Amino acid sequence: MSQIEIVKAFFARYREHDINGMLAMFSQDARIDYVPMRLEGPAGDAGRTIWRALMDGFPDLSNQVTAVYGDDDQRTAIAEVTITGTQARDVLGIASRGQSFSLPHVFIVRMDTDGRIEFMRAYWDNAAFYAALTPAAT
């Protein structure tokens, strides 16, 4: 599989809430870095923690891959992904008000020579995320 196909397969598993399937796509020593949350570490630990929290808090959590760009060495991909969900439980310190979000993300993904993800970095507008879930009182 090309790096673009690997990224698309990862997000397909994400849509299915298949955390074990997502993690199976990572190399043994893979790391993630979710920059706006300052969450980084081994994919098996940090990834499982954040994905479980999001899927528990947003049972309808989904994503749409809008574009994926690959480099010539077939090891790096940049994905534009819109992630959506409706909050059903308190999550990430945010009390549930039943609000929804739809937020563009950028993921930079690096593959190892065996076609496994060795590093994933994610960016999004965290202020917009919190604003969508905690609307101002009127």
Q: What is the name of the CATH class?
A: Alpha Beta
What sort of overall outline do the alpha carbons produce when their principal axes are compared?
Answer: globular
Secondary structure: helix percent = 25-40%
Order of strands across the main sheet: 2-1-6-5-4-3
Strand pairing plus helix content: what structural class? Answer: alpha+beta
Total beta-strand segments:
6
Count of distinct structural domains? 1
- By CATH, the architecture is named Roll
* Cα-atom radius of gyration: 15 Å
H/E series: HHEEHEEEEH
The end-to-end distance, rounded to whole angstroms, is 51 Å
Topology of this structure?
Blueprint: H1 3-15, H2 19-23, E1 26-34, E2 39-42, H3 43-57, E3 62-70, E4 76-86, E5 100-111, E6 117-124, H4 126-133
Parallel strand pairs: 1-6
Antiparallel strand pairs: 1-2, 3-4, 4-5, 5-6
